[in-house]
Design a protein that fits this description.
The chain is mainly beta. Helix content is about 5%, strand content about 45%.
C-alpha cells in the first residue's frame, strides 16, 4: 500500500507555558514512549510491567525530538496483556500522541480492548470524516461515544479521553475539552485476555509517539499540563 509522505513537524504558535510544569505519573498503568525497545518488546515505563510485543511496526523519529513506532495500516501492531479497568465501573484515561498518514477509508485503531464487546479509540472511516473517536461495540452495531475534530494526513494529534462512572466521558484535543457524554456503564471489554495498539481488523497507518493508560480520570488541568509537557519534551519551544 502506497503511503502518504509524512509532513515535517511544524512549530505552532509560540505557547505561553504555565509555571511549575510536571509530568503526571499518579495512576499510570501503561506508558509507552518508544525510547526503550528491546528486540521486539516495547518497555512499559510506568513501572507496572505491561510491556508490549511489537508485530511489524518499526522504530522511527516521531513528534519533534521524540521517538515513535510507525504502523503500516495493514497488520502492524503492539500487543499487551489485559488491563482490567474497562468494566464501566472504574475510571480510566486513554492518551495518545499520534500522526496518521491515511488512508481514511477504514477504522484505524489506536487502542482496541476486546472481549464480549469492544472499546476502541479509532481514527477515521467514511462515516467519521477523518475524525478520531471512542467507539463501543456491544453486540449489535457501534456506538460513537465522544468524537474529536477532523484532522489531516501528517498532522500530529495529542488526544486524551477520560471516563468516570459517575460523570461519563470527556475528550480533549491538545489539552482543550472538545466533546463530552454523560453515558456510563456497560463497557465490559475485558472478557478476552488481549489488548492491541495498531491492528485488529483495522490497521493504524502512521506514527505513535506516546501511548498511556491511567487507572483514573485525569482532570482538565492535568490533561492541559500534559499537552505542554510533551510539547516541551519534544523540544518544540
Amino acid at each position: 500500500m502506497e503511503k502518504v509522505k509524512l509532513k515535517p513537524v511544524a512549530l505552532k504558535e509560540k505557547r505561553a507555558l504555565p509555571m511549575n510544569l510536571y509530568d503526571i505519573r499518579d495512576g499510570l498503568v501503561l506508558d509507552f514512549d518508544f525510547a526503550q525497545i528491546a528486540s521486539n518488546t516495547v518497555i512499559d515505563v510506568s513501572g507496572k510491567n505491561n510491556n508490549g510485543t511489537i508485530v511489524g511496526a518499526t522504530a522511527v523519529n516521531g513528534y519533534g525530538s521524540l521517538l515513535a513506532l510507525d504502523f503500516d495500516g495493514m497488520d502492524d501492531a503492539v500487543n499487551f496483556e489485559r488491563i482490567g479497568i474497562f468494566d464501566g465501573n472504574s475510571s480510566f484515561t486513554l492518551l495518545a500522541l499520534f500522526n496518521t498518514d491515511g488512508p481514511f477509508d477504514h477504522f484505524q485503531r489506536i487502542f482496541c480492548f476486546q472481549g464480549e464487546s469492544q472499546l476502541i479509540m479509532t481514527f477515521g472511516d467514511v462515516v467519521q470524516n477523518n475524525q478520531y473517536t471512542i467507539r463501543l461495540s456491544q453486540g449489535v452495531g457501534w456506538n460513537n461515544v465522544v468524537t474529536g475534530p477532523e484532522v489531516t494526513a501528517g498532522e500530529w494529534v495529542f488526544a486524551a479521553v477520560t471516563y468516570d462512572p459517575i460523570m461519563g466521558w470527556k475528550l480533549f484535543h491538545w489539552g482543550d475539552l472538545f466533546d463530552e457524554n454523560p453515558q456510563t456503564g456497560n463497557i465490559t471489554p475485558d472478557g478476552h485476555p488481549y489488548n492491541v495498539m495498531g491492528n485488529d481488523a483495522g490497521g493504524f497507518s502512521g506514527r505513535i509517539s506516546v501511548a498511556r493508560i491511567y487507572d483514573r480520570a485525569l482532570t482538565m488541568r492535568e490533561v492541559k499540563n500534559l499537552s505542554y509537557i510533551f510539547y516541551r519534551k519534544a523540544g518544540l519551544l
